[in-house]
Amino acid sequence: MTGPDLLIDHFLPHPHFELVRNVIVDAPVKETYAAARELDFTDIRGGVVSAASWLRMLPERWHNRRHGPPRHPTRLTPDDLDAGSEWTLLGDRPGSEFALGVAGKFWKPVIVWRRVAADEFAAFDEAGYGKLVLAVSAFPYGPHRTLLTVHTRVRMSDPESWLKFRRYWRLSRPAIGSVHTALIRTIAANARRRALAAYTRTDQD
Q: How far is residue 147's CA from residue 21's CA, in Å, rounded to a whole number?
């Protein structure tokens, strides 16, 4: 018996580095997925690290260089990332999961970013680069609750890049883990608020 086919397995099946957080949310899948899909990353705070600056994992150059100096976005949803940065919305299965991806030289003081189209992402393997996938999934856990997972995978394209990123990962992993925890807590809290609001509307009707 095999588990469900996950988006992250399609786009990055064999990671070199991986981090997963999950929680049981006291809200149905519909509300939990909506809370994740509409998440504003600028609202997330995890210790001293904000999700919007996730160790520079969100591209510094929010606008295309042709449009002048970068600005600080006031909102940063998955769709905003796909429309205005090097991140690509790789896939979206409405109601259950979505995945974002980006390529880059993540270990450099100023990251060299590379936007890779969804249909090219799985095969992308240019020397000197790595690729990263951030996936969020929401699956039923009984009739009224949800198993929420935030999952990051990274794969490097060559041994030299792997060595460089391994040093970076050892230092940054605890901070990235704290951001994962903050992400999942924020989504869960928003999902519970959505569920309560939906219940209140139904009760009033």
A: 11
